[in-house]
Automatic annotation (TrEMBL):
InterPro entries: Bact_Sigma-Reg, HATPase_C_sf, HATPase_dom, PPM-type-like_dom_sf, PPM-type_phosphatase-like_dom. The keyword Iron does not apply. It comes from Streptomyces erythrogriseus. It holds the Pfam family HATPase_c_2. Keywords: Hydrolase. Residues 2-221 form the PPM-type phosphatase domain. Coiled coil: none annotated. It comes from the Bacteria. This is PPM-type phosphatase domain-containing protein.
Length: 351
């Protein structure tokens, strides 16, 4: 990742352009860029609210189009909620705000994205081919009468994605289409690092003080090697729990992660048992070795589990509490066919 932010000149107070990079479950990452109309405290406050809302919604692992729909509902509510301490002008600051939200999965190499009135991202393939990605524009936030649509693309490893705001490509003497063409040409110039590519883009497009804030977020795609992902399909049979434990421990030994074998065995046992006992449909187990050890158990039921405090006389009900204690993070994300319960365990530091 690399980013550049150029303030408008003359400075009219802080602006409303923003971007974010949000780690998600399953080694995935969310890339976000947005633009709030205007400058000053209202624009800055609006930008802060939107950025916080996107981070909160991202933690729920929603698809891009669904996340933007919830963000749109939130904006509509904030536009109508004002009192003596928050005048109507503050709510009006949301009107015309735009956002683009993308999720990249390094295991599958697929990127899904949706936009709310924002400019489309630019993709530069490893061979230097430049493409302005074609995805439905969607309405700006706060209108509420049109839907958002996601599109998904498989990206070659080493592809360059560029997310930006209109202040980078539009100037009084240059329209947006010409600016996007110049952006693509500048991105295709080979440079050693993403930061140098970003600086080259800014120097090419902003030859003088920009009249509006300009933001640029660059991301180079990578793929997890196949030998860092292991998965197993499991029958809906209680005997499969032992098979899953054995397979997980064997895989950790191959990865040299024996120090995580005990906790992973317990996590796998609890999650697979719950899936077989309380869910339906096919059950699968997946381990991912990324910056942490990720364990995922998928089933065909959309109901999310929740931890509860078991009474001393209860024979069950402690599984998720145990998982929460053993894992650094855990959660649930929904899929087209059911759900995935996931955990993350950090690697033990070398002494």
């Amino acid at each position: 990742m690399a980013s550049c932010y150029q303030r408008a000149h003359p400075p009219n107070g802080v602006g409303g352009d923003w971007f974010d990079v949000i780690p998600l479950s399953g080694a995935r990452v969310a890339l976000v860029v947005g633009d709030v109309v205007g400058h000053g405290m209202d624009a800055a406050a609006t930008m802060g609210r939107l950025r916080t809302a996107v981070r909160t919604l991202a933690n729920l692992d929603m698809p891009p189009d669904e996340l933007l729909a919830h963000l749109d509902d939130l904006v509509i509510g904030l536009m109508g909620a004002h009192d003596d301490h928050e005048p109507a002008a503050a709510g009006a600051a949301f009107l015309g705000a735009t956002c683009l939200y993308a999720v990249y999965d390094p295991v599958s190499g697929r990127c899904s994205m949706a936009r709310a009135g924002h400019l489309p991202p630019v993709l530069v393939s490893p061979d230097g081919t430049v493409e302005v990605m074609d995805l439905p524009a969607g309405p700006p936030l706060g209108l509420g009468y049109l839907t958002f649509e996601s599109c998904e693309r498989e990206l070659t490893e080493g592809s360059l994605l560029a997310f930006y705001t209109d202040g980078l490509v539009e100037t009084p003497d240059r329209d947006i289409d010409e600016g996007i063409d110049r952006l693509g040409a500048a991105l295709a110039v080979p440079r050693p690092t993403l930061r140098e590519i970003g600086r080259g883009v800014v120097d090419t497009l902003l030859t003088g003080p920009p009249p509006d804030d300009a933001a640029l977020l660059l991301a180079r795609t990578r793929s997890l090697p196949a030998d860092r992902v292991a998965s197993w399909d499991l029958p809906s049979d209680p005997a499969a729990v032992g098979t899953a434990r054995t397979a997980a421990v064997r895989q950790l030994t191959e990865w040299g992660l024996d120090d995580l074998a005990f906790t992973t065995e317990l996590i796998v046992s609890e999650l697979v048992t719950n899936a077989i006992r309380h869910a339906s449909g096919p059950v699968s187990l997946r381990l991912i070795r990324d910056r942490a050890l990720i364990c995922e158990v998928a089933d065909g039921t959309g109901t999310s589990p929740r931890p509860r405090h078991a009474r001393t006389t209860d024979e069950g009900g402690r599984g998720l509490m145990i998982v929460a204690q053993l894992a650094h993070r855990w959660g649930t994300r929904h899929t087209a066919t059911g759900k995935i319960i996931w955990t993350e365990q950090p690697f033990v530091a070398e002494p």
